[in-house]
Every structure is written in structure tokens, then in C-alpha cells.
Predict the structure.
Amino acid sequence: MFRGHWIVADMDGTLTPTPTRAHGKYLTLSYCMQTGLGYGARYKSCLPWLRLFLECGGTLCVVSTAGKRVWSQLYPDLAPALFRLGAAAAAAGATAADGNGAPPGPSPPIDSSDAPGTLYLCGFTGAALFRSRPWEAVWSDMDRLHPHWRVPSAPHPSPFDEGAGLCNGETAVAAAMVPPAGVALEEWREYREQGAAPDAAGSQAAANSAVSRLATMDAAACMLARDEGRQALVRFFEHASHVCGHDAARAKDFFAACLSTKYHSVFADLLQQLLAEVHVTAPHGGDDTSGSDAGTPHVCFAASNVLSPAALAQHGFFLQETGDALVDAQPVPRADGTVADGAAVAQVVVMGIPMQFFDQVFPAVGSSSSDNPSATSRSWHCCPRCAAAGAGARQRLEAAGLELKSQPNSVCLHRYGVDKATCVRWLLAQHEQHQLMFELSQALAFGDMPESVDAPLTAFPPMQFISLSPKDGAAARLADIERAAVAGSTSADSTRGGVVRQQQQHQQPRCLSDSAQNMFHVGGEEEGTALFLEELLGGCTSEQQQLQVRRRSAASSSNDAADAACVVNWFTADRVAACATRARRRMEEELLQRQQRSTAST
């Protein structure tokens, strides 16, 4: 039914809850659905709808800044739909009924139009692309490697509840063992070697097109990124200490105001360790403070052993709850999640740098005065010497062919030309050669941050974008995007000649400006996704059932038979707009009811 239809979606805050909503943890789809995330049966999960979409032949492409955890949070829950695990268990049951005790025979035949869809996992901010293998090949390999894999174990939820429909939960059905990721998934290696945009603007290190198209960084660039990441954390903690008057007891409130929950206590304790390690010293050179902070001395954490490179790189050393490293160099793993020696590094993620302080931690070129390089702003108070070093951070990274991307609670350093749209460009380019059936008019993109990290996914009309942003409304989000587009255009005009400006008048408008016509705001993060998919896919399946009834009643008509063979586009603009409107209204009503219940309980 959904063959040729694509969902291209961000993960955190779009399919799965962010750690802020999940009490500092990274949770799977099924766990959230089973526990209700504190909302009980009223919690909306997109898991049953994603399974339905895949079972009916749709293609799901998940694009995330996350690395290996994309596997653990998504794959096991989607495998039953990808590999027909219910049918595998049924085949095992039939064999057991024969009483011969032999492993199941060959896979039962299936019409190509009824085959399940494909899952693409594009992690590391788009630097590596993995895909699910055809279900027949997976069955064959599992029969060889795990002869009794089809014998049902614990029941898996089914996306069909015959009694009350999807919205009231899932029924449990017997299913075979979930195939290990090493059997079920494979990396599309050519993507990593050729996927990055060639000669990306601003990359001073792109000596030739072959180098510039690599999506991963070399050893030297990785070492630089890790060092710059450590220095960024040093500057942020120096500023935090200054703002708190070097009183660790006040630090938790500061971190609570700018970072998600998992950092609050951890960073307050870390600052206490840093202050115990160093002596407070007066600022050197230049009056870079003002007002009530003028008499507060600075501290320098640059030589701190607490923030040693080894400690920052160790997973779970500081962030034990989620197992993250504060400076995380993320290599591209094998399909089974293991990492080979010497594996290429896709990105370096610096955890705990708030988006609101990004421009101070990594000041743009020219933002600091040459006479006083430590003062990136009147309200920024890190060690003057460290601030001076930080003023050149962007230049050093750009010279190495790296790009900085600010995220709500972190900063990602990766190769130029790699972003969340890289896989979309690649899939479009490979569409005909690999028969991907990827048409933008039959694709939907989803994200909770269309004004920043998800903005690249808004740039492919007629592919429509569903905004799940919990902040403000559609008008405010689109206004942010519009302002960014205007600012970028104005900046370009001010630095280029009149001939270039004249040429730009005949070029296509900036993609972010265009995106307003293809964007629909639902809000509600991953619950908004669930409500939208319920409206869209539920309506489509109901309509399809009605069509099938009419076709069966008029089976003798050749015209009806011809109509049945036609491919239907279920993702038309009118249908998407109507579903988004209904989903947004339902999400707003649910949030209002939750607020009222919370107020009544207090």
C-alpha cells in the first residue's frame, strides 16, 4: 500500500523522547509505549504506526546526530515489521505441528507488492548510512546461523488491534527472534566515500573533489576537534564559575537554566571539583568585566587534571546515567555495532555546551576586538587567556575542513558538506540506478528543530516537513527561518559585487525561505508525530479498505481493474495539511488537559 512512500525523520524529540522528557535517559520506542512516560495510557507512541508503514511497504529513513544508539533505540522495535517475524513464527508453528522436529523449510512465497519496506539509519549527523537487508536474505542467513530462530519467544506487540484500533494499544502476537543487527543491517559504503557535497563552501582543506566528498575526518582533524572540544568546555566552566561567584552551591541553578536535566547535578559537582583544584586569580590585562561582576576574579581551568582528555573521552565517566562522553569522538561502527581498529571518525560531539552560549564559546571571526580578544561580549566572563585562544577556534577548525553545528545541549564537529540533508541528496542521486522509488512528492520529513539542526530537511520541496517543535507556534518558527534566510541573503549581497547580485535575482530562492510553503506545525515532539501518523496512516488504511470493497464489488469492470493497478500518492499536500491541522488541535487539547490535571493536583 505504501510502496514508494518515504518518511524521513529526525530521532530525538521526533520519534523518541529527548533525555529532558525521559528523565535523563535514552529510551526505546517500546519502553515508552509500555510505561507511558508518566502519562499512562494517554501517552502517544509512533511505534505502531511506524510498524504499520513498514509492513505495508513504506520506507523509513531516520536521520540523526546520534551515533550507535540509533541502533539500540529503534532497530529491535522495528525488526518485527521489517522481517515478518510473525510469519516466521507461524512457519515454525506449522513445522512443530508436523511433529518432525526439523528446522523450518524455505521461506514462504510472497508477492513483491506485499513485501515489507526498508529501514535506513543515517547517523552521525548524516556521515554514515545503514540499511536493512531484504527479508528473504535475512531469513536465509538466520536459518543457517540460528536454526531455531523462528521458534517464538516473548510475544511482540502487533500494530493491529482488531478490537479497538491502533490508538488503544497493541495486541501481543507470537514472533520469531529479532535478527542480530549484524545479520539484518548493512552499511552503504559508497555513501560514506561519496556522500558529502563536493567542494563545500568555506572548506579551506578541500584540496580536490575526492577528499572533499569524504564524510569522515582523518586522524589529524579528529585530534584537533577533540582538543578544541576540551577547550570549549574549559571556557564554558570558567564562565559558569564566574557567574556563580565561584560558589559551586549556586551552580546547579545556573546549569538548570541553560542545560537539560542530566547535566544539572553532574556539572555542579564537576565545577566543585574544578574549583577545589585551582586558586582564584585576578584577571590579567584589559577590563573585560562590568557592573556587579567587575570585582569578581577569574579562574583558569586550562591546565585542569579533572578535565583531562582521557576523562572527557571516557563514556560514562561524568554522565553515568546515559553513558555519554563529554568529548565523544564517534567512529563509524560495523553493522553489528562493533568498531574496528582504525575505524574512521564521523564526528566529535562536545556534550554540555548550551545553544544559547554557542556564539560565546565559539566566537565568530571579527566578533572580538584585537585590543581585547577576551571580551566576546559584555556578559561573557571566562579566563582572558582562554578567551583569546577561543577567538581563533572557528578559523582553526575551518582550516581543517571541519564545521561546527550548535545543538540544544551540545556542539557537533564534523566534515564540511555533511548534514541531515546529505542522505536525501544521495538517495535522490541513486534513485534510478538502485530503483529506490524515491520521489519527493511522495515523501514527508519530520523534525522538532526546523530552525536549526533539522533545517536541511526543510529544503526539498515538494517533500513536506512536519514540525514537532514544542516551542511557540508555526508562525514563530517560520518567522525564525524567514529571518535567517533574509539575513543570509543580505550578508551575501553586502560582500559580493553587483554582478553577483544581478545573477542571484535569476536564481532559485533560498531553500529556507521556500520551506514555509511546505511546512506544517504540529508540535508535541514524538507524541505529535504519533498523532499525525495516526491521522494520516489511519485515514489512508481506512480509505484503502473502502476502495478494496468497492473494487471487489465491481471486479468485472476492466476500468476498476486498471484503477487497482495504479499507484496512489497518499501524501498529497491537501491530505497532509488536513492531517496536520487535526493532529495539532488534538495535541494542543491533550497538553491543555495535562496542564489542568497538574494544576488540580497541586
Q: What stands out?
A: The chain has a mean pLDDT of 81.
